[in-house]
Amino acid sequence: MSQTWTTRFLLRKSVRNLVVHVSVCIINGIVTVITVSPLCIAMGAYMILLGIGTFLFEAPLLCKQAETARQFHDFISNRRFIEKAAIYILLSIVPILVCFGIATLIGCGMVFITGVFYGLMAIGKRGGASQKGDQQEMNPLNDVESQKPDVKN
Q1: To 10 degrees, the CA torsion angle through 81, 79, 69, 44?
Q2: Read out DSSP for 65-83?
Q3: Which of 125, 124, 89, 129 is nearest to 110 (CA)?
Q4: What is the pTM of this model?
Q5: How far apart are CA 51 and CA 135, in angstroms?
Q6: CA distances from 67 to 52, 75, 87 (A)
Q7: Could you report the per-residue pLDDT of 72-115, keeping only the tens digit for each?
Q8: Are 88 and 56 in contact (CB under 8 A)?
Q9: Closest by alpha carbon to 12, among 58, 55, 78, 77?
Q10: What 3-state class would DSSP assign to 151?
Q11: Given a cut of 80, is residue 24 above it in pLDDT?
């Protein structure tokens, strides 16, 4: 499937800055753990695990020695873009809904943005239209043009 150059550029930049994104998620998870609310403490620990999981999803080269990390990456790399987008978006929304704060918003926002990029890649350049024929079938003017009477001069 073809993606626009802006989507490819932004995803490449996002993956290059993965260490920064993951560290922001983990640091904000640590900040969220240092609270009074038990739910926020749990969501802070969740954010730390989310950062480590995101790191394993996207950067397996740094974890090649661990066999379980390699198996985990092989499983994730065989997923379609829409499945990766759903995983990232759903996992990043949970802490924001349970313990809303600036630390959870920034930390999980990084993971959410990665999910949005994967969603854009799943949609592709044409916005979901798989073939040119599909677009013609959906055009309401095709029915009107086919019902015009033939006029012979």
Answers
A1: 50
A2: T-HHHHHHHHHHHTS-HHH
A3: 89
A4: 0.69
A5: 40
A6: 16, 12, 22
A7: 777 877 888 899 889 989 999 999 999 999 999 999 998 898 88
A8: no
A9: 58
A10: coil
A11: yes
Cα(113)–Cα(12) distance, integer angstroms: 13
Two structure tokens written together for 139:
């055009």
| 1 has a pLDDT exceeding 60 | no
Tokens of 53: 């999981």
**Per-position DSSP letters for 38-62, written without gaps between them:** HHHHHHHHHHHHHHHHHHHHH-GGG
For residue 25 the two structure tokens come to 């998620």
| Encoded tokens for 131 | 């073939």
On whether the CB atoms of residues 108 and 40 are closer than 8 A, the answer is: no
In this prediction, residue 113 carries a pLDDT of 85
pLDDT digits (tens, 9 = 90+) for 30-75: 999 998 899 999 999 999 999 988 887 777 666 666 777 777 777 8
Query: What's the rounded Cα separation, in Å, for the pair 115 and 107?
Result: 14
Angle value at C-alpha 99, between 43 and 49, nearest 5 degrees: 20
